[in-house]
Amino acid sequence: MPVNALPHGLCRDCLTPAQTASRRCRSCGSPRMLAHAELENLFLAHIDCDAFYAAVEKRDNPELRDRPVIIGGGKRGVVSTACYIARINGVRSAMPMFKALEACPEAVVIKPDMEKYVRVGRQVRSMMEALTPMVEPLSIDEAFLDLSGTEKLHGAPPAMVLARFARQVEEEVGITVSVGLSYCKFLAKVASDLDKPRGFSVIGKSEAFSFLSRQPVTLIWGVGKAFTATLARDGLHTIGQLQTMERNDLMRRYGTMGDRLYHLSRGMDERSVKPRSEAKSVSSETTFNVDLSRAEDLVPVLRALSERVSARLKKADIAGRTIVLKLKTTDFRIRTRNRQLGDPTRLADRIFHTGLDLLKREIDGTRFRLLGIGVSDLTDAAKADPPDLVDRLSHKRALAEGAMDSLREKFGKQAVETGYTFGHGKAGQPQRDGDD
After folding, report:
1. What local confidence, expressed as pLDDT, does residue 256 receive?
2. How far does the chain reach from its first CA to its final CA, in angstroms?
3. Which of 147, 252, 388, 405 has its CA 20 to 30 A from that of 23?
4. Which residues are annotated as catalytic?
5. What CATH number is associated with residue 97?
6. What class of enzyme is it (predicted)?
7. Is residue 12 assigned to a domain?
8. For residues 232 and 244, is the Cβ–Cβ distance under 8 A?
9. For the chain, how many structural domains are there in total?
10. Cα 76 from Cα 201, distance rounded (Å)
11. What is the DSSP letter of 238?
12. Same domain, 46 and 194
């Protein structure tokens, strides 16, 4: 066994390697033991700060330590974050504030201080980046890490490095984190939620299939309330039921989402950790050769730009919640209009139709020299475009767009067009364009 290898376990408090599985550390007596047969061979982690906003406020005001704390707006607002004491009393994120206070009337309500939270989040992020350059942020307080190949750098395998990191965050930042360690992103994320707060859970390859078989379908990314109802109507409630189904059958029923169900239900996730800077938006714009004012001239270009933005979001495996329309008039005055969606999107169809609604309000005879469309409030693509119970045709449009993407990937970008751009030739394409 290499000098720095772990004998399948360690103490998360004193970091002493454990020769055999035991309920308490033989060195310090702590019950926070971590043991797993595959511990030495797993390197992909998901780290999530525990009740982040509330934890920062409790750190800065020790008098709040043993009190329920809710971060959110006034009586008409919603809960941004609730500490675990408040959660025990039934408070949940996104709950209307009046309901949260009915469930926990003794809670201390604090308005969010985003500037402070961003500052603390960046501090934790920089500590992650000291472990490995392979850090993929998901939000202000969570990220994926790929620690493969870092054993020589740290003199210890990933599990020990992550345990050190968790202790360092508590000591230096004053908040706690939960760690999930596995062989793929999906199960690392699942593992980090298993034992909050101050958790460290491991899911290895040997147990993945059986572990997943006992879980509800809602564990799979993208299976929200609407899609859960769809699966329930088809008699599908557990991941174990999905494991018995063929891929073609799932795709025939649910399109691209069926492919996700097939793979993730079996613990198959080949996505790699993709380090990226915290891009604020993805956008595309074009400056016209001649100023345009008519809808029939502007709409085809808007569609083409929307498809370009969508392709970049899909390639980066991200999505965004806010659609931003940009126009520049002939006298160089810039107009920006935006609309926040109920759920993040990466679909050209949703980007275009939201942008089109914004554009129609601006078509009043004004001549424009530039048109742009973008998406901001970026997040992981797994949260994007859940089935819409109100717009029943949205699912069919999403399937059609997936088919168009496949054809373009195989035969080129011009292999298939929508009616918005077909027949418009160069007039329906960006003329002098730029991406951001």
Report:
1. 84
2. 50
3. 147
4. 142
5. 3.30.70.270
6. transferase
7. no
8. no
9. 3
10. 37
11. B
12. yes
- Does 189 lie in the same domain as 44? yes
- Asked whether 180 and 50 are in contact (CB, 8 A), the reply is no
What residue ranges of the chain have pLDDT lower than 50? 1-5, 425-428, 431-432
Question: Helix, strand, or coil here: 151?
Answer: helix
Angle, helices 256-265 vs 247-254, to 10°: value is: 140
Looking at 158, 187, 202, which one is the last position of a domain?
202
- 8 Å CB contact between 263 and 408: no
Note whether 366 and 299 are same-domain residues: yes
C-alpha separations of 17 from 35, 146, 147, 157, 178 in Å: 10, 22, 19, 11, 20
According to the model, what pLDDT value does residue 171 have?
A: 96
- SS3 category, 120: helix
> Do 47 and 191 sit in the same domain of this protein?
yes
Contact 245, 106 (CB under 8 A): no
**Helix, coil or strand: residue 99:** helix
Verify that 42 and 152 share a domain, yes or no: yes
Which tokens belong to 23? 């309920």
287 and 372 together in one domain: yes
Question: Which pLDDT score, from 0 to 100, does residue 431 have?
Answer: 47
Q: What is the pLDDT of residue 85?
A: 96
Q: 346 — phi, psi (to 5°)? A: -135, 10
Q: Are residues 302 and 237 in the same domain?
A: no
Provide the CB-side half-sphere exposure for 321 (13 A, CA): 9
d(CA 166, CA 195): 14
Residue 409, helix vs strand vs coil: helix
Structure tokens at 274: 């993709």
Name the domain boundary from 150, 173, 202: 202
**Where in the sequence is the domain holding 190, given as residue range(s)?**
38-202
Q: Is 0.85 surpassed by the pTM of this model? A: no
The rounded distance, in Å, linking the Cα atoms of 109 and 196 is 22
**CB contact at 8 A, 337 and 317:** no
Longest Cα pair distance anywhere in the chain, in angstroms? 79
**Residue 141 assigned ligand-binding role:** yes
